[in-house]
Each structure stands twice: as structure tokens, then as C-alpha cells.
Amino acid sequence: MTCRLGALCFDANDPRALARFWGGFLGWERAGDGHTLLPVDDTGFRLRFSPSSQRKTGQNPMHFDLTSTSHEDQQRTVARALELGARHIDVGQRPEEGHVVLADPEGNEFCVIGPGNDFLADCGFVGAVAGEGSRETGYFWSEALGWPLVWDQDEETAIRSPHGGPKITWGGPPLPPKNGKNRLHFDLVPDGGQRAEVDRLLALGAERVDIGQGEVSWVVMADPDGHEFCVLTPPEQT
């Protein structure tokens, strides 16, 4: 038994506005609810924007790495993002690294990677969901999703769906301190029953957590590094 990655979810102060930004930037279609984006490429999961009254504080432990085919293509991508409402930010990147760090209208970081990046060479525009995390967590997510490891070196790990799409990466230690609930999290859809899937994930090293969700149909859990994710009920599968 496994589960599939249904969506990457953003906490958003204005979900519809943030969905408009990312939909326009990625060229993805908006679902009828106005705050879910449907991929038009091989990404394989949706983007969902959920209402939150909490303002962003600190750097997200997860962000997109977007690819470029040339320096001109990288510049066009950056210009398009800025035109839609993104801004340049400094997270300590060095000029020689060759990528441009931006933030969306609510401050969520993302990188536009320069051309010639071997690690993302066979990926699409959304090259990776890059995260802070330990090797243990990389192994956990490989087992949880049934995705093979495509990188395991020097405490850094990466997995990728057998069907292609973006890589999910973890940069290894040192890990930054976790301050409150993450603004980005994964929604998982079980192939079978929710309870059986929760039990399987617990056995792999996850734990159930209470973030004040109250009585809801999904189960909130955390991976070995404490990053939250949700296990939906199969009827929410679409």
C-alpha cells in the first residue's frame, strides 16, 4: 500500500490572489474553486492555496527550483515573475551560484536556476521542490510515496516519481530551527483506506500532530524532521 502526492499546499493570506500569481507564472489552469491549480506539464501534483490569517515569518523550509534553457530564458522567466508581482530577495546566495532568488507576493521564496544545471537537466520547468531536511527524512519520503532515491550523497537526498516530473530534495545538516507550522505542506491521497495509510506512515517514522485543526476529515502528521503533511480521505481523490 502506498499513497500519491496530491498537492503542494500554501498557507495564504489571499488564496485567490496567490493562485492567480502562480497560475499566471507557471501557465497552469485554475480549478473551479479558484484556489487550486492543475498542472499542464509532467509535474504530477496540484498546487492548492488555503486561507490563513498568519503572516509569513522566516524562510520557508521548502521552495521551487525552476529551470532555464539559456541565460536569456532565465532573464525572461525572472522578468515575467517580477511583472506578475514577485520581487528579488537576498537569502545569502552568492553571485557565482548562477541562480536568481525571488519571492512571490506573499514572500514565499523560489529560485530560477541558470542553464547547464546537470542535476535538473532532464526535468521540466518545475525542476525540483527543494527542502531543508535530513537523510532520514529523504528515506522516509521515498518509502512513503514509493519514489526511488535519485541522489544520496554527503547527507543530501533526492527522490523522483517513476513517471518523471520534479525532484524532491533535502539538503542535509545543519537544519534550521523550526518555528511554528510550515506555510507549505504536502497533501497525500491514500491508495486504500486512510487509517491503514496513517498506520503505515507511523511505522515508517511519521507522527500525528495537532496544529489546532479541530474536527476535520484529514489527518495531520509530521515527517521525521517535524515538517507537517496531511493524509486525506480517499473520497477527496480527484
From TrEMBL:
Residue ranges of every copy of the VOC domain listed in the record: 122-234
GO MF term list: lyase activity
Annotated keywords: Lyase
Record bears the keyword Lyase: yes
InterPro entries listed in its UniProt record: Glyas_Bleomycin-R_OHBP_Dase, Glyoxalase_6, VOC_core
Name of the protein described by the UniProt record: Enzyme related to lactoylglutathione lyase
